[in-house]
Specification:
The chain has about 425 residues and is α/β, with parallel strands linked by helices. Helices cover about 40% and strands about 30% of the residues. The structure holds adenosine-5'-triphosphate and magnesium ion.
Length: about 425
């Protein structure tokens, strides 16, 4: 069990803040429960996962099937943590997500031409006034920077003086039905939604450093049926795109190529798959794999080299699609490429990506310096989204925490003030 040696203040804070990330994926639902600790880290106190049903390419298609998986994952996390949760920050994904960056301008009206929060909101609204196809909505508005009377690169314009305020905003749009189904599935599982966060943004929250965001980096979350790309630069999101492929493509290639069932293909992929032939020496290439083709009793043998010949061209093809998108938007990714999601764990994926993107590439593990508690259990790129969602839940609760009358001691108030500064 998890050791609990909290100070009185900490216990009080913990009662108020329970960070919950719920990552509803096409193949798995994952739940992470965290609590803030004294130095701003999140202690993971519970994790749970369950096989997922009722999604296609990241979109909830059958809310009722998803309910069962969500309940299972949440129950497990609650059991491990010993706490009961009421709400969660949930991922949002889907092959139809689109990202585009827009700008909007407003005149600063107030006395002394001091920019107010309302002016900032109006500028963001003005950038968001786009034509949408019927049934579509803006699912996120991510400010990139502000320009005040021609001075660009401003992050916090409120309080500055100026006549003309321009906002550059990255807008992400999607058909409304996708979000409505996520809400329905989560509510029917007995949980309220605290916030909905784009899946790659969740992965970025747990894996990227401030330097990655500043100098430019491409986060690529490769799931089961969906791969999402989010490009960061100058501290903000510069581009978002989603591709309708993922790890299941490799599994299907193995199933078709070797005439084996999908579950057997999945096992072969995980245990012996490699997408970069040059990582294997001659001896390993000739290692034999035994398979049982569908409808046959006798086994067949093949070498690891043949398996790699099936997987490698597919990995190159999929990564090339993503790399082309990075080039198309002319993104500067000096910090390189970060791969998250279950399929980034396929052997050789990072090596091949490094060649295809021609940029330094790493697997995005949830950053240990942000975390405590059950980190060994979740130290894997497939937990990056769920942990990032929990981190974002914790940070927004700290930012919104109303100290008036709630905070029991001065020490707690100082603690919050300290961390508010950090997360702003
Ligand atoms: N060790 C491994 N080796 C190879 N593939 C793996 C490994 N672990 C997980 N995968 C693959 O990762 C995929 C699942 O990844 P993940 O859990 O990130 O997806 P998801 O969130 O359920 O789906 P999506 O994001 O597409 O909705 C599966 O295709 C699985 O086969
Ligand atoms: Mg996923």
């Amino acid at each position: 069990m998890i050791e609990r040696r909290y100070s009185i203040e900490k216990t009080m804070i913990n009662r108020e803040i329970l960070a919950v990330g719920l990552d509803i994926g096409t193949s798995r639902v994952r739940c992470v429960i965290g609590e803030p600790d004294e130095d701003g880290k999140m202690n993971i106190v519970g994790i749970g996962q369950a096989e997922s049903k009722g999604l296609r390419r990241g979109i909830v298609t059958t809310a009722n099937s998803v309910v069962e998986s969500v309940k299972k994952a949440v129950d497990e996390a609650e059991r491990i943590s010993g706490v009961e949760i009421q709400m969660a920050t949930v991922n949002f994904s889907g092959e139809h997500l689109r990202g585009e960056s827009k700008s909007g301008v407003v005149a600063v009206a107030g006395a002394g031409r001091e920019i107010t929060d309302e002016d900032v909101d109006r500028a963001i609204d003005s950038a968001s006034a786009i034509q949408l196809p019927t049934g579509w909505e803006i699912v996120d508005r991510l400010p990139q920077e502000f320009i005040v009377d021609g001075q660009d690169g401003i992050i916090e314009p409120a309080g500055m003086r100026g006549a003309r305020l321009e906002a550059l905003v990255h807008l992400v749009t999607s058909p409304s039905a996708g979000r409505q189904n996520v809400v329905k599935a989560v509510n029917n599982s007995g949980l309220e939604i605290e916030n909905i966060v784009l899946e790659p943004l969740g992965a970025a929250t747990s894996t990227l450093t401030d330097e990655d965001r500043e100098y430019g980096c491409a986060l690529v979350n490769i799931g089961a049926e969906i791969t999402s790309l989010m490009i960061f630069g100058r501290g903000a999101v510069q581009h978002t795109a989603v591709f309708p492929f993922g790890g299941l493509n490799f599994t299907k290639d193995i199933a078709t190529g070797l005439r084996v069932s999908i579950p057997q293909a999945e096992r072969i992929k995980r245990d012996m798959g490699c997408v970069a032939g040059y990582l294997m020496d001659e001896e390993e290439k000739q290692e034999v794999i035994e398979i049982t083709p569908v409808g046959r009793k006798e086994t067949r043998q093949l070498t690891k080299e043949i398996l790699c010949d099936i997987l490698q061209p597919r990995a190159i093809e999929l990564l090339q699609h993503i790399a082309r998108e990075v080039s198309r938007v002319d993104a500067q990714i000096s910090s390189g490429v970060v791969l998250t999601g279950g399929s980034s764990a396929i052997r050789g994926m990072v090596d091949i990506a490094e060649q295809v993107f021609d940029a330094p590439t790493r697997v995005g593990y949830p950053r240990k310096e942000l975390l405590g508690g059950l980190i060994d259990e979740s130290e894997s790129p497939e937990w990056a989204v769920a942990i990032g969602l929990a981190l974002s839940s914790m940070r927004s609760q700290i930012l919104e925490y109303d100290m008036d009358g709630k905070s029991p001691t001065r020490k707690v108030a100082e603690w919050f003030e300290n961390f508010r500064g950090k997360f702003r």
